[in-house]
Amino acid sequence: MIVENNQSSSSLIRPNYLFAILSAAAILSYLKPLISLYSYSLNHESASHILLIPLISIYLLYTERKQIFQSTSMSVVTGGTLILAGISVRFLAAPIWDSAEGNDGLVATTLSFVVIWLGVFLLCYGRRVFRAALFPLLFLFLMVPLPEALLDKTIYLLQEGSTDIAVALFKLVQVPVYRQGFILYLPGVSIEVAKECSGIRSSVALLITCLLAAHLFLRSFWKMSFFVLLAVPLAIIKNGIRITTLTLLSMYVDPSFLHGNLHRDGGFVFFLLALAILAPILLLLQKMERKSQKTAPALSATVASH
Q1: 257-261 long-range contacts, CB within 8 A, separation 24+
Q2: Residue 191 pLDDT > 60, yes or no?
Q3: Which of 2, 13, 134, 227 would you label with 167, given CA atoms 20 to 30 Å apart?
Q4: Taking Cα atoms as reference points, which of 207, 182, 186 lies closest to residue 195?
Q5: Comparing C-alpha atoms, which of 45, 23, 20 is closest to residue 34?
Q6: Burial letters for 213-222: b for 16+ Cβ neighbours within 10 Å, e otherwise?
Q7: By three-state DSSP, how is residue 7 classified?
Q8: Distance between CA atoms of 125 and 176, rounded to whole angstroms?
Q9: Who has greater pLDDT, 304 or 250?
């Protein structure tokens, strides 16, 4: 990673080279788990975002480099402690990895790798730089797959919420519907909101989009948190609308809509719908921040005058 700041070039050579060497060593020592992570991300919808996460983090570090790398200094003790913590996680994960049950071993080893890499960054560039780069660094934890128990629970909640929304929408448009678990019975057709219909991939994509938008366009912690949390109900609403739309199209237009291209690849259309809902909310939050920023100096001036 090339650091650009007001320090002399010679003073930057050491941390940059050290960071490159230690990062390469970490990658080589975790080569087998990283290959497994790559394979896992290609074969699981819930993990399809993993390959993009390090690229996004690197991009953020690069574009914000002037603010992040203003003053570098090595932090051997703190960084070394974090590296040792990551190594400890890997040793604890070894029995889980060897048992090869579920994805728990991959979860632990990926977590270990991310912690070690953060420790390397902290060691090479210091605590001040680490704090300035906190978002792109913590963003790397999205590389860690969800443990299967948590993933199953998340998918179940998405199924439950999406089914609730679909039932409410059918009733809203006065289409008779009878629900039995995740199976909906409608005139001439019955559908099941299966795990594959939970919308887990688009839900994760929506969460990542909200995180990035909040980081790039908002400054208040509470407004950022509110905007990110919107991703959860909106993901459920979006998927409920998708289920309802496809079912109505199959009932009144063409039965193939339940199995056609819109069903298989149309998630992006409904993802855009979610973004269209989020855009005015983001603009409103930005406007509120600008208003509060203008009010704060005026209030300070009033207080000072008294």
Answers
A1: 258/189, 258/191
A2: yes
A3: 227
A4: 182
A5: 23
A6: bbbeebeeee
A7: coil
A8: 63
A9: 250
